[in-house]
């Protein structure tokens, strides 16, 4: 009995942030860490979007999510920043413009 060769299926392509996109995101994350507003982050790559999640504390839900959704590039823009409750804080085609939402002084730790 002859064995049939096993076909190796290539992994599903996933959306990821390019290194030119990661630098401004990490700059924002660094500023948030220095100001005490962030402590941890996570990166997720899925078949239709990529996520950079920023956590204030070690919690289940991120405080902010920066997402790249290429299928929305020609409509609303492929970059989105979500708040903790899932609200859209900013959306657009240019990542640096979208990340300006973090420049506002409204993200201060209130004690």
SSE arrangement:
Blueprint: H1 19-34, E1 40-45, E2 50-55, E3 64-68, E4 79-82, E5 88-92, H2 95-98
Antiparallel strand pairs: 1-2, 2-3, 3-4, 4-5
Key terms for this structure?
single chain; 111 residues; 5 strands; globular; DUF2794
Characterize the structure shown:
The chain is an alpha+beta fold and 111 residues long. The chain has one domain (19-102). Helix content is 18%, strand content 23%. It has helices at 19-34, 95-98; strands spanning 40-45, 50-55, 64-68, 79-82, 88-92. Strands 1-2-3-4-5 form a 5-stranded antiparallel beta sheet. The mean pLDDT is 85. InterPro entries: DUF2794.
Mean pLDDT: 85
Write the H/E string, N to C: HEEEEEH
- Radius of gyration, rounded? 18 Å
Q: Shape from CA axes?
A: globular
